[in-house]
Automatic annotation (TrEMBL):
The keyword S-adenosyl-L-methionine does not apply. It is found in: Cell membrane; Membrane. This is ABC transporter permease. It comes from the Bacteria. One of its GO terms (cellular component) is plasma membrane. Belongs to the binding-protein-dependent transport system permease family. Its main location: membrane. It comes from Kocuria turfanensis.
């Protein structure tokens, strides 16, 4: 553990950079994917276009995207902006499909009832449709978060600082401890972020569990004849 004890401030700095590069694309991707998925879920013509298009986006190799984006954005190849934009694209690719499924899982009868109660489309979306879709949306976010945590490390190949830097530097200098620390912290970040998302989903759907708990279960008396 000599290397770790001498370099822990540097390791913490890389951990923070890795976390930012993972979480920011997750938020940006969700802001893009959820409205797109909502539109696709309610329009049968657009659904295959958006779902297929998002699937094709995910087939683009990450390293290729990191190299091409500077040419398109006019940024330096080592700029963190390239990683954030690339991972946002991948998050959108993952979330569009799962978010379409989330909105399609919402009971149409519930939506019709809310419309009959006078809910306008925007209010109905935020007050009824989005809360009911939360469990499936969070499941998609959890998948995207794990994917992001792992792909951020690829940016180290082109010089973007993250925990992936420990892999490339440790391999170059043959320091096994540095590589192991990088792997361990990457896994730890993935687990912690997954727990945060799981807890958030649990908190946001508390009202659903409370409603199920208050629903009385009919009892069948012994000897009753159907």
């Amino acid at each position: 553990m000599n290397w770790t004890s001498r370099n822990w401030p540097y390791v913490l700095e890389l951990t923070g950079a890795h976390l930012v590069q993972s979480v920011l694309p997750l938020l940006l991707g969700a802001l893009v994917a959820i409205p797109v998925a909502r539109l696709a879920a309610r329009n049968r013509t657009l659904r295959p276009v958006f779902v297929t298009g998002s699937s094709l986006l995910y087939t683009i190799p990450s390293l290729t995207l990191f190299v091409v984006l500077p040419l398109l954005l006019g940024t330096q190849i080592t700029s963190v902006v390239n990683v954030i934009v690339a991972l946002t694209i991948y998050v959108v690719a993952i979330l569009v499909r799962s978010s379409v499924d989330a909105f399609e899982s919402v009971d149409r009868d519930v939506l019709q009832a809310s419309t009959a109660m006078g809910y306008r489309p925007l209010r109905r979306f935020f007050a009824v449709e989005l809360p009911l879709a939360v469990p499936v949306l969070v499941a998609g976010l959890r998948v995207a978060s794990v994917s992001n945590i792992s792909m951020v490390s690829v940016g180290a190949v082109i010089g973007v600082q993250s925990l992936g830097t420990l892999f490339t530097d440790g391999l170059r200098r043959s320091i096994l401890e540095e590589i192991v620390v990088g792997i361990a912290l990457t896994v730890l970040l993935a687990v912690l972020l997954d727990l945060v998302l799981r807890g958030t989903g649990h908190a946001l759907t508390r009202w659903q569990r409370a409603g199920r708990a208050r629903t009385p279960v009919p009892r069948v008396r012994r000897g009753a004849v159907a």
